[in-house]
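User: Hello, can you help with two protein structures?

Assistant: Certainly.
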Amino acid sequence: MTEETEQKILDAALEAFAEDGYAGATTRVIAKNAGFTEMTLYRKFKTKENLFSAVLNRSNDKMIEDFGSIFMDKKFENPRDFLDAFIRNLVELGKDNFEFIKITMNESNRISGNFIDDFVNNISGYVEKNIQNKEMDYRIFVFNVLSFIYLLLLDYGHSFKDQDKAIDKFINNIFICP
């Protein structure tokens, strides 16, 4: 199977698992949406579970790579500038990887890898490098930021008609707290 064929199947599967969940997504529909037969899908992935794992692993690798390319070698004048860039870029990262995020949130009982914990640990180290505060629990802070971003992405402009303004207020609230 070519890399292009595999990628089309993985893309169709990502969309199906995000939309219908593991139980609702069928290999027949995934194969059809990818433009192939179910036999082609099974030839490469053998089982639906293998396909699901491949989708998760590839999506996780992409998200970590995207995170690294956005953040790793940037310097900031102060914590506020860091947080502004950090949160806004995480929102964009979330938008670009929303299907994967949705799967990890909705299918956490089915996922053997601990993608969320690994991602939070990775981000926590980055925050610690840029905001040095002995009293700060970086993991809890990152969970708060990610929770805000997830809810912002789920909202689709209903409660937060202006996402930029909501982000500004969130950052301001962080700096109001002692």
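That covers the first. Now for the second protein you mentioned:
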Amino acid sequence: MTAAPQVTPSDLDRGAQARLATVDQRYTANRRLLVEILSGAERPLTMPELLEEGDGLAQSSVYRNLVVLEQAGVVRRIVTGDEFARFELAEDLTGHHHHHLVCSSCGSVEDVTVPEEIEELFDATLGRVAARHGFVVDGHRLDLLGSCRECRQRERRSEA
């Protein structure tokens, strides 16, 4: 897997608009703002975090728009063990392939990128596994589940 070219904000807007058109939806100002917020985030964001970043956005509007953006393939939802799903832009839209570290205790999600040689090994191995089942792989997602540093430290303190 080679490094993808940097996607510009106008590329994101054009991509989001085209995907929304496929589900007969418009690229409204609120949807554009959500794409802008998610494109600037270093990790997937929760609904409260999106509301905090999007001054003046109503929770019901954000929720409805996220559903539409997800249906159009602009946004991806990441479900964790806590009460909040996280949202990020679809990686085929951004050109940024990555994986996640998901804390099973607090639900935090951190984006991680692995070295290219490891991605190539993943692709080859997963392709062989899929082929044995008559399946063709379009891509992969890897979420590592465990405990984040803060939760492990909190656990150690409570055991002491």
